[in-house]
Design brief:
The protein is built from three helices and two strands. It is globular. The protein is mostly helical. The chain has a single domain, classed as Winged helix-like DNA-binding domain superfamily/Winged helix DNA-binding domain (Arc Repressor Mutant, subunit A).
């Protein structure tokens, strides 16, 4: 799979993987997706960010996840 929108430049953003030539790291894109569940609101705040940028950021991030098992609590907390 070709990720032509994820780039790494040692002279930009401390060498972190970024989206195109934007000063927007892959990590930040993932954080934005969690912060803005409404994609329209995300587009309003970050108009340069395109759907393909988001897709490739998710693919890139998932490639670095391994299949290890992480223990999670058995109970589910609810907020009243």
């Amino acid at each position: 799979m070709k990720l032509d929108r994820v780039m790494r430049n040692p002279n930009r953003m401390n060498g972190q993987p970024c989206i195109r030539n934007l000063r927007l790291t892959v990590r930040r894109v993932i954080e934005l997706l969690a912060t803005y569940p409404d994609r329209e609101e995300l587009r309003q705040e970050f108009s340069a960010l395109e759907d393909e940028d988001i897709r490739q950021a998710l693919i890139f991030a998932s490639a670095y996840m391994d299949d290890r098992i992480i223990d999670l609590p058995d109970h589910h907390e609810t907020v009243a």
